[in-house]
Amino acid sequence: MVRSRVRTLALVVVSGLTVACSQVQRGKTIAVPQFSIAVKLSETARKKLQVIHESVLVIAYFDGDPLPGKGNDNSPMRGVVLGSEEKLVDDKNVATFTDTKISRSNWDDLSDKNYFVTINVVSTRKSSKDNLLDCPDPIDRISNFVGKSTQVSCRLIGEHDESMP
C-alpha cells in the first residue's frame, strides 16, 4: 500500500514537472521571418562539385547590438548572439530558411530588434576535408532578407573567373 502511494506520488511529481517544463519552454524562441539564399556557382565550380558528389551548405548567423549593460564580447560576432541555422541547397541551388528559431532571452537583450544576418556559403566537406568554395558573405539587417531571395555568387577557391564578382 505504501509502495503504491509512493509510486503514484512519484508519477504525479514527474507528470507535474513535465507539464511545468513544457510550459516554461513555450515562448523561449522567436521565429525568424522566411528568406532564401540562391547560390550561383561558376561553371567550373558546378562541374567540380557535381563530379565529386559534393553539396552546398548555407549557414545563417543571427546577432545584434546589446542594450546598455547587456551582451558579451563574442568576437567576431556582435554583443548578442541569437543563434545560427544550416540549410543544404535544393536542386535549384536555393536554401530556404522557413522554420528557423532564435533565442528569445537573447532577443530581449537587443538594442534594435532589426538584428543582423551573416550568410556563409561552403561546400559540405563530404568528399574533401576542406571547403572548396570562395563566396562573399552577405551581412545585413533581417529586414533586408525577409521575403526574398538573396543571390550569392561562388567559385572554386583559387579559381580566376573574370565573369564572377
Topology:
Elements: H1 2-25, E1 29-31, E2 35-41, H2 43-51, E3 56-64, E4 80-88, E5 94-97, E6 101-103, H3 104-108, E7 116-123, E8 133-134, E9 139-141, E10 149-156
Parallel strand pairs: 2-10
Antiparallel strand pairs: 1-6, 2-5, 3-4, 3-7, 7-9, 8-10
What does this structure look like?
There is one protein chain. With 165 residues, the protein is α+β, with helices and mostly antiparallel strands. It has a single domain, classed as Immunoglobulin-like, CATH 2.60.40. Helices cover 23% and strands 34% of the residues. The protein is built from three helices and ten strands; from the N terminus they run H-E-E-H-E-E-E-E-H-E-E-E-E. The strands form three sheets. A four-stranded mixed β-sheet has the order 5-2-10-8. Strands 4-3-7-9 form a four-stranded antiparallel β-sheet. A two-stranded antiparallel sheet has the order 1-6. The longest helix is centred in the N-terminal third of the chain and has 24 residues. It is elongated. The chain starts with a helix and ends in a 9-residue tail after the last strand. 23% of the residues are buried.
